[in-house]
Design a protein that fits this description.
Helix content: over 70%
Radius of gyration: 17 Å
Oligomer: single chain
Number of helices: 10
Strand content: under 5%
Structural class: mainly alpha
Number of domains: 1
């Protein structure tokens, strides 16, 4: 009985905070609780989520989700790639009034390509989108993930926290074969923007 109460409490915490922020309980949370154990999962989440939120504030939504997507692609996690790539799409549309060159599905399909090819595809999309200033961030991240450089300075400390954090999340997403759900950002609660995005994407392929 005590174990079941603990499981319910852990899941309520793990699902409740993202639901308040993003408008839905992420499908990954039960898997995180199962993989780490309920108490460890809650401790891990409460330790990492505030730091992630600080990075989101410092880097901004587009950059944070671009980096999160890139890590998840390198690690091969469909779930996290989609959730952060979709958030990136919505933020770009809100801020620039047009579609990002690679949609969330095309970005998710980049799982499994090597770091150099991944960089080429992302840089090409960023340049087409007029987001050249983000290219050095992709370069720094890929160099850190692949061990081509060691972290130095506060910003790269933030990058390494994302790498470690998504290492756990990606591992759970892969282990549970979790299906994609929604955008992993507060922008997910903007239903009008999501509807506009869906219509523009549909028109782009018609």
């Amino acid at each position: 009985m005590a174990g079941k109460v603990l499981d319910r409490f852990a899941l309520a915490v793990l699902e409740g905070i993202p639901k308040r922020l993003w408008g839905f309980p992420p499908l990954l949370m039960p898997v995180l609780a199962d993989q780490l154990g309920p108490l460890r999962a809650v401790r891990w989440f409460l330790w990492n989520m505030p730091r992630y939120e600080r990075t989101l504030k410092a880097f901004g939504g587009f950059r944070t989700h671009l980096l999160s997507t890139t890590i998840s692609l390198i690690n091969g996690c469909r779930y996290c790639t989609f959730g952060h790539a979709y958030a990136l799409q919505l933020i770009y549309l809100r801020d620039h009034g047009e579609l990002f060159p690679l949609d969330e599905h095309a970005m998710t399909e980049l799982r499994g390509v090597g770091p150099d090819e991944l960089r080429r595809r992302l840089v090409e999309a960023l340049q087409q989108a007029g987001m050249d200033t983000e290219v050095p961030w992709v370069d720094r991240l890929i160099a850190l993930v692949t061990g081509r450089r060691k972290p130095a300075g506060h910003d790269e400390g933030r990058l390494m926290h994302l790498v470690r954090m998504f290492g756990v999340l990606n591992g759970c997403g892969i282990a549970g074969d979790v299906l994609p759900d929604q955008a992993h950002d507060p922008i997910n609660t903007d239903d009008a923007l999501k509807e506009r995005y869906a219509k523009l994407r549909a028109a782009a392929v018609s």
